[in-house]
Amino acid sequence: MHVSRLLLPTFWPFSKPATATGESKPDPEGVATTDERIERLVMALPDPVLVVAAGGKVVAANAHVRAALDADPLGHHLSATIRAPALLEAVNAAVEGAEAHRVELEMRVPLARSFDVHVAPLGGAALLVFRDLTREQQIERMRADFVANASHELRTPLASLSGFIETMQGAARNDEAARTRFLTLMRQQSDRMRRLIDDLLSLSRIEINEHVRPTGTADLAQIASMVRDNLDGIARELDCEIVLQLQGPLPVIGDGDELLQVVQNLVENALKYGSSGKRIEIEGGPLNGHMELTVRDHGPGIAAEHLPRLTERFYRVSVLESRMRGGTGLGLAIVKHILNRHRGRLSIASEPGQGSAFTIRLPAAK
């Protein structure tokens, strides 16, 4: 990427024109100025890097820093992209020639991010090199959360298994009917633990990469059709119909496998808790540069006080009903974190007796 001459301070003279692709031309004769070499170095570095001139304007920024900040700071005052007094003070000091300094930067929008920023003087400007600490911190948090969640949620099925085994070794040792019944219950509890561990691991993997925005494309209409086909057998067993009402292809920026998990979780939830309405509709279409997909059921609905908490880990409207239906309490939490990674949104509309509608909204692919 070539930095426009108009955006550069007077200390940074450029003599080489840009190519049609925006990259600086090769310098076979080795006559490029020092400032041109610095510009090329900024663009080539594998880390997020930007250069700030006196006055606070960003005069160089590579593609990595734009991806890390989820914004293009080039040509704008640094504070328009990063509102962190400590970092701005360090930049001003570096512009005036102070020694290199490190600043810890916490960003909350659009997602929580953590950076270690190296701020160094650069001939009347400041060079900022960002080191992303988000993944490291999320791994540590994931370990702690996994231990806490697993130990809490696995306690009940483990206690049940232990009780069944004790009974079969004692009072029901020679009772064939009791042994058969207990083995069935033990299988159910072991299946529940397996689903719980699978969901916990899935959620942990998603959270580790939640700050990394996908760059591929996927078709929500095709995904919805796949989910309908996958779950049609379960729907028929419940005497329920899954109906597609889609306005053509729905291309979005995203990871197809993760978005398949989102739609499948929503439809599975509708089957578990709304199949009494006998019909589940998957509707979708474009809206203001985004694509929306809604999973609607006609079941018992959800009271308003529960709606804000539905995406919390292990939150259940009815703990007993959720466990009876094989729920882990993590399905909507997984949906939320996948949508966060995709810079998407989930909205929920429901009233008791009127069914529920879960709508996802994602940036459309061009």
Question: Can I get a quick summary?
Answer:
With 366 residues, the chain is α+β, with helices and mostly antiparallel strands. Helices cover 41% and strands 21% of the residues.
Q: Describe it for me?
A:
The chain has 366 residues and is an alpha+beta fold. The chain has 3 domains: 5-132, Beta-Lactamase; 134-212, Helix Hairpins (Orthogonal Bundle); 214-366, Histidine kinase-like ATPase, C-terminal domain (Heat Shock Protein 90, 2-Layer Sandwich), CATH 3.30.565. It is built from 10 helices and 12 strands. The chain has helices at residues 34-44, 63-69, 85-95, 134-153, 155-169, 176-208, 220-237, 256-274, 319-324, 331-341, and strands at 49-53, 58-61, 101-107, 113-121, 125-132, 217-219, 241-246, 251-253, 279-287, 290-297, 345-350, 356-363. A 5-stranded antiparallel sheet has the order 2-1-5-4-3. The protein is elongated and about 85 Å long.
Strand order of the largest sheet: 2-1-5-4-3
Shape verdict? elongated
Percentage of β-strand residues: 15-25%
Give the beta-strand count: 12
> Low-confidence parts lasting 5 or more residues at pLDDT below 50?
1-25, 28-32
* Helix segment tally: 10
Q: CATH superfamily of the largest domain, called what?
A: Histidine kinase-like ATPase, C-terminal domain
